Amino acid sequence: MGATEIPWTPPESYVPVPSAIDGIEIYGPAEQKAEKEQTRTFKCPACGGVTSYDATQQNLVCPHCGHRQDIAAKVVGQTADQFEFTLETMERAQYGWGAERSELACESCGAVVAVAKDALTNTCAFCGSHRVLAREADPNAPRPTALIPFKTDRAQCQAGVNEWLGRGWMHPPELRNIRALQEMTGVYLPYWTFDANLGADWKAEVGTERTESYYQDGEWKERTVIDWDWRSGSIRRAVSNHLVAGTARVSHVLLERITPFTLQELVEYEPGYLAGWQAKTYDLPLDQAWEIGKENMREMAKQDCYRDTGSSHVRNMQMTVDFADEAWRYILLPIYLASYHFDERTFQVVVNGQTGAVAGQKPVAWLRIWLAIAAILSPGACLGLLGLLLAWTGIGAFGIVLGLVLLVAGLIGAIVIFRNARAAEEI
Asked: CA 309, CA 198: separation in Å to the nearest integer?
């Protein structure tokens, strides 16, 4: 009696794969499908209400019953995960926000922000437009590796904005009544940070001062002479956490004015910090941000090279810069933002959500400016005119001279006022 054949079965998790030989079956390991990440919702365990991150208490708070929940995120500071410039790094990055969120897309300026599913906002914080469309958040958007949570709450933010609005006499008093400035929007802005080691070789003509004597008009005099000679050298510089804003929707001049951020307070990305707040998706991709970062670093190296010459007299500077050990991170930083319309123009105000620093654009009451300039110039002009009328007397000559002096001083003051007024409006 023959032996009973036991049917062969493939090992567990093995599946048929294409075979190049007819009649031959081939099995291989089944493709491991990545489990879809479970997106989180922020519901209060006590009453079921929607919780949000509270900047004052630094945790999730239910506005209905006051229940608080800690956010389990480690403070990583400047040791937050960073990546080298390789193709694999973007593949290793995580995607999506890790929580249920929608997007608001502005039809006017193109800004896109991620908001909570139940957010009831219809105004773009970047341009003040009401033409916004709600849509599903992009699940394939790269996820930040770290963020700085909001520390300045809305009340502190508003106090800082009110104090800023009160500065200066040249602005319209109606600014205090603009609704947008009373409802600053908290937004996590995208930033790229870059690290690199720079090596720069320089060559330049460097001047050395010396004093020489010369004979003129029957006497010896001294003068300063600069002797020029070619010199060369090299510098080394390590740049760490150089920030480049990942969006062009906010004036970079204003963002510079509210820096620095304390990066030692960076925490690992945790969706809970975004609960109840907006988050801007980046519109400046990594490669473009890196070009901006490199240009900024080259300027740093250039200043180091000038200092390395040891002289204030330098000309024909030539420099080559090499970059090594480049690395990057994608992070979120907290700001409050408002865009408001005044006199058919759009202005922006930003507040550092970590430190409370305020910067912005304010329209100018130009009638006040022209009246002030007229008041400054009037004494000199009137005194000079009076001196001309009394020119036949000794007092007249004195009046002309004094009037001219006051007029020149008034012109200098008028130029300063005019420039300050222009700078307040133009960013």
From this structure: 18
Q: Is 73 exposed, middle or buried (0-12, 13-18, 19+ CB in 10 A)?
A: middle
* Preceding omega of 334 cis (within 30 degrees of 0): no
Q: Of 78, 43, 86, 85, nearest to 64 (Cα)? A: 43
Buried b (16+ CB within 10 A) or exposed e, 365-399: beeebeebbeebbeebeebbebbeeeeeeeeeeeb
What is the DSSP pairing of strand 112-116 with strand 278-280?
antiparallel
Main-chain phi, psi angles of 211, to 5 degrees: -105, 130
pLDDT tens for 304-358 read 999 999 999 999 999 999 999 889 999 999 999 988 888 888 888 999 999 999 9
Phi, psi for residue 268 in degrees, rounded to 5: -60, 145
Q: In what order do the strands lie in the sheet with 68-69?
A: 52-54, 59-61, 68-69
Judge contact between 282 and 247, C-beta under 8 A.
Answer: yes
pLDDT tens-digit profile of 60-93?
A: 888 778 888 888 777 877 666 677 665 455 555 6
Yes or no: say if 282 and 230 are a contact pair by the CB < 8 Å rule: no
Q: 128 near 347, Cβ under 8 Å?
A: no
pTM for this model (two decimals):
0.76
Domain boundaries, the chain: 73-208+219-360, 366-425
